[in-house]
Amino acid sequence: MSFGPKKRGHSGRFIGRREWLAGMTVGLSGISCVSEEPTAKWPGSGGAPGSGGYPWSGGAPGSGGAPGSGGAPGAGGALESGGAPGAGGFIDGRLGRAASDQVLLGSTGIQISRLAMGSGTHGSNGASDQTRLGTAFPRMLVESYDRGITFFETADQYGAHQQVGAAARAIGRQKVVVMTKSHAQTWDEMEADLNRFLKELGTDYIDIVLLHNKQSATWTTECEGAMEYLAEAKRRGVIRAHGVSCHTLSALKLAAETEWVDVDLARINPFGLHMDADPATVIPILERMKAAGKGVIGMKILGQGDAVNRIDQAIEHAVRLGALDAFTIGFTSPRQLDEVAEKIAQI
Question: Of 33, 211, 237, 274, which has the fewest Cβ atoms less than 10 A away?
Answer without folding.
Answer: 237
